[in-house]
C-alpha cells in the first residue's frame, strides 16, 4: 500500500470514528477491507482507496464500520459483571430508592452482548426490581452491528463464549442453526446509532456507563475528550466501567478509580476532592 | 494441578482435548465410553470430566447419573462436550447434574471459557 493511500485512509478513519491506525497495523486494513473491496467488485485495497477518494457516504461508512467492528461476547471478562451484581447494583438501588429508576449505557455496544448480559443479570434479580423503571441503552456507529444486536441472533460459537449454559437454556431459543435471545430480554434494551465523538447530551443521563475496550483505539486527546463528554452525562454518584487495559490516570481528571474495584471509576467534579473517596456501599475493608 | 477425565469414543477428539487441557495445566486421563469412565472414577475421582454424549457400551448421560450416585461423585465438575445441540438435550444434561455444556465443534477458546465459568481455572 502506498504511504499516501495509508495516510488517506488513516485520516478518514480518525475523523469519522476516532480510530487510530498506526503504520504497523496496516495489515488490519488489508484483512478487513479486502472483503469490502470484493463485495463492490473491486480488485483489491488499492482500487478501494482510489474509489474512496471520490466515494459517497455509503462506502465511507462501510469502510469505517469494517474497521471499527470488534468482537464481543457475553459476560466478557466475568469480573465486571460480578462487581455489577455484588456492588454496583446494590448501591444504585440504595441511592435511587426514592426515584426508583436508573439508566445504564453500553457504549460501543457492537453486537449487543454486553447490554444483554446486563439485562439478564437484572432479570435474574426479579422481585427486587419490581416497580423500578430501568433503561439499558446500547449505542454503536455500525448500523450493521446495531441490526444484529436488535435481532438478538447469535451463532453457536458466540453463545458459547462467556454465556453460562443455564442462561442459554433460560433466555435463548434455537432457530435453525442460530440462537435468539428472548423477546423479554430484547425489550429491556434499546439500541441506537451514535458516534462517541459527537455531543452526547441528547442521549440523556446515565447512572452507569460501560465503555470497555473502546478508548484503546483512540489517541490521547480523543480519549480525554470522550471521557470528559461522558462525565457530563453522568450524575455525581455515577459509575464508569473501562476495559482491563484502560485507565483514566494521566488522561482525564473527570474520573477517579474506585478503591478496590478494578476497572470502575467514579465521577469527579471540578473543585471536588482529588483523593478518591469510596462511594456509599463500597467498603474499603475497615 | 487439577485432573480431568476425557470421555469420548473418538480418539481424535480425546487427543485434541488432551492437548488443550495440558496447555491449561490439567493432568488428564482418558476413557472410551461411559463404563470405562465409571470404572476409573470408582478408583480415582477426577476434579473435572469432559464428557461426550453418544458412545458405545454406556453413553454420557447414563454415566453422569451413575457418577453422581457414587460416594464422592458430586466432586467432579462435569462439562458435556457433544454434537447434541438442542435445548432438550441441554436441559436433560443439567437435570442429570452437568455443570456446563459445550456444543461441538469446539476450540480451545470455548473450552477455556467454559472451564473458567465453572471455576476450574
Count the helices of chain B. How many? 5
The largest sheet of chain A, given as strand count, sense and whether it forms a barrel, is: 7 strands, mixed
Number of domains of chain B: 1
Helical content band of chain B: 40-55%
CATH topological fold name of the largest domain in chain A: Rossmann fold
Give the strand order, joined by hyphens, for the main sheet of chain B. Answer: 2-1-3-4-5
Number of strands of chain B: 5
Beta-strand content estimate of chain B: 15-25%
Named at the architecture level, the CATH assignment of chain B is: 3-Layer(aba) Sandwich
Our count of domains of chain A comes out at 2
Strand content of chain A: 15-25%
CATH topology of chain B: Rossmann fold
Rounded to the nearest angstrom, the radius of gyration of chain A is 20 Å
Counted beta strands of chain A: 10
Uncertain stretches of 5 or more adjacent residues of chain B = none
Oligomer: heterodimer
Q: Treating each run of at least 4 consecutive H or I residues as one helix, how many helices of chain A?
A: 10
Just give the CATH class of chain B.
Alpha Beta
State the CATH class of the largest domain in chain A.
Alpha Beta
Most residues in contact: chain pair: A-B, 14 and 18 residues
Uncertain runs of chain A with pLDDT below 50, 5 residues or more? 273-277
Give a verbal description of the structure.
The complex is a heterodimer of chains A (286) and B (121). Chain A contains ten helices and ten strands. With 286 residues, chain A is an alpha/beta fold. In chain A, helix 2 packs across helix 4 (57-68). Chain B has one domain (2-117): Response regulator (Rossmann fold), CATH 3.40.50.2300. Chain B is built from five helices and five strands. Chain B has a five-stranded parallel beta sheet, with helices on both faces. Chain B starts with a strand and ends with a helix. The model of chain B has no long low-confidence stretch (mean pLDDT 96). The A-B interface holds A 73, 78, 156-157, 160-162, 164-166, 168-169, 173-174 and B 85-87, 90-91, 94, 98, 100-103, 106, 109-110, 113-114, 116-117.
Amino acid at each position: 500500500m502506498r504511504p499516501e493511500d495509508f495516510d488517506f485512509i488513516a485520516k478518514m478513519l480518525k475523523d469519522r470514528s476516532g480510530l487510530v491506525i498506526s503504520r504497523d497495523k496496516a495489515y488490519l486494513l488489508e484483512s478487513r477491507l479486502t472483503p469490502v473491496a470484493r463485495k463492490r467488485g473491486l480488485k483489491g485495497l488499492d482500487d478501494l482507496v482510489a474509489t474512496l477518494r471520490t466515494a459517497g457516504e455509503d462506502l465511507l461508512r462501510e469502510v469505517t464500520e469494517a474497521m471499527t467492528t470488534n468482537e464481543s461476547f457475553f459476560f466478557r471478562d466475568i469480573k465486571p459483571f460480578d462487581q455489577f451484581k455484588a456492588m454496583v447494583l446494590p448501591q444504585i438501588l440504595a441511592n435511587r430508592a426514592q426515584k426508583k429508576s436508573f439508566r445504564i449505557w453500553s457504549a460501543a455496544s457492537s453486537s449487543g452482548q454486553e447490554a444483554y448480559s446486563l439485562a439478564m443479570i437484572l432479570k435474574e434479580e426479579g422481585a427486587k426490581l419490581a416497580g423500578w423503571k430501568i433503561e439499558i441503552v446500547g449505542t454503536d456507529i455500525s448500523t450493521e452491528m446495531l441490526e444484529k444486536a436488535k435481532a438478538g441472533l447469535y451463532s453457536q460459537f458466540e453463545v458459547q463464549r462467556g454465556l453460562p449454559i443455564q442462561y442459554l437454556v433460560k433466555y435463548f431459543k434455537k432457530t435453525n442453526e442460530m440462537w435468539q435471545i428472548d423477546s423479554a430480554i430484547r425489550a429491556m434494551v434499546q439500541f441506537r446509532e451514535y458516534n462517541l465523538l459527537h455531543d452526547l447530551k441528547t442521549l440523556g443521563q446515565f447512572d452507569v456507563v460501560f465503555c470497555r475496550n473502546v478508548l484503546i483505539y483512540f489517541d490521547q486527546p480523543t480519549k480525554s475528550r470522550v471521557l470528559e463528554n461522558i462525565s457530563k452525562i453522568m450524575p455525581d454518584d455515577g459509575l464508569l466501567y473501562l476495559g482491563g487495559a484502560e485507565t483514566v490516570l494521566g488522561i482525564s481528571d473527570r474520573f477517579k478509580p474506585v478503591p478496590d474495584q478494578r476497572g470502575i471509576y467514579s465521577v469527579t467534579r471540578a473543585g471536588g476532592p482529588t483523593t478518591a473517596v469510596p462511594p456509599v456501599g463500597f467498603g474499603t475493608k475497615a | 494441578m487439577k485432573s480431568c477425565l476425557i470421555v469420548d469414543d473418538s480418539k481424535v477428539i480425546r487427543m485434541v482435548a488432551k492437548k488443550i487441557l495440558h496447555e491449561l495445566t490439567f493432568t488428564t486421563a482418558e476413557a472410551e465410553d461411559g463404563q470405562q469412565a465409571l470404572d476409573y472414577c470408582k478408583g480415582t475421582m477426577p476434579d473435572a470430566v469432559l464428557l461426550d454424549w453418544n458412545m458405545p457400551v454406556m453413553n454420557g448421560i447414563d454415566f453422569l447419573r451413575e457418577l453422581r450416585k457414587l460416594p464422592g461423585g458430586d466432586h467432579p465438575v462435569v462439562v458435556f462436550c457433544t454434537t447434541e445441540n438442542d435445548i432438550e438435550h441441554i436441559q436433560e444434561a443439567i437435570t442429570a447434574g452437568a455443570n456446563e455444556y459445550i456444543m461441538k465443534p469446539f476450540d480451545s477458546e470455548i473450552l477455556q471459557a467454559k472451564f473458567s465459568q465453572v471455576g476450574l481455572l
